[in-house]
Amino acid sequence: MKFGLLFAYQNPPDSGIPWQEPYADMLKCLPRAEALGYSSAFQASHHIQKDGFCPAPLVAMAGAAAVTERMRIGTSVLLVPLYAPLKLAEDVAVLDNLSNGRFVFGVAPGYVSQEFTAHDVPRAERVGRFEEALDLMTAAWSGEPFSFDGKYYRAENARVTPPTVQRPHPPIWYGVSAAASLRRAVKRRAIQIMSPRHGIAELKEHYAAYDTAAKEAGWQPPERPIIRQVFIAENMARAEEMAAPAIDYLYRELYGAASAAGDRVLRGDDGQVVAQSDTVAFEGFKRRYIIGDPEFAIAEIKKYEAELNPSEMICWMHMPGIKGADAAQSMEFFAKHVMPEFS
Fold first, then answer.
1. Is 81 within 8 Å of 109 (Cβ atoms)?
2. I need a labelling partner for 213 at 20 to 30 A (CA). Which of 36, 105, 145, 179 fits?
């Protein structure tokens, strides 16, 4: 199994961390992460969030590409309906060239209502816009002149250069979980990348729908990545002391708030749907993140290995309010004490 890293640059209002510091932390840690054997760096994305959750993932990953040589860099995920697709195709092509073919295009239709309202995009159109935009982009990445006439987007005698380094285009990863969306992912030969808000039981349900569709299509997905929130320290108490506030914040302010608003369901470890975000707490979701000492992490990852057989675990260590030096220490512990068990 390979291991990667995920970044979001969130600053809770009371963190006292300067806005630019998490970006500097990412640029500083990635060369070391590459030397330690981490395989990838991915960028999470949301918009108009009070905590600075990264609204410009391609810009951030351009920085990541500049300080690494071998790691894959990618979005996980970019909310496609909020972008002009031809311009997005251009930016992806440049980033694939900048990274010399190391870019992974992780995408999703989005779900947070306020993001669509702010961008003046009807939320009800998000799936249609998402799929149509990807159709336009894949046509654009041929590098040849093309025209496109869709329900939402048009392009006449357009051309995107430079062409992408990866042919026919960078890998597309779908950050979706609905059965119909998973079938569309298979049709596009897209890799499924799951949100870390899901526990193993939910992940198995989603993979079952995806795997069934892939089998029916006669296609074997070449990868099976998952994302988990991860923080490792010398002992359990220290790991939980440092990471539990970040988990509380993330699950309350993002996943819990979206569930309470009816945008996307979040279930606790007890299976109950979160209807009020202020009921979310660290203890209620412990089956889906890996916060503890190395021995605990190894045991937990072996559970994922047995149940899901992932090809890569993308570790979200730089969580909201955690100082860069502390996340870097977790990265070091994980590489030294955990990763060798899965090499």
1. yes
2. 105
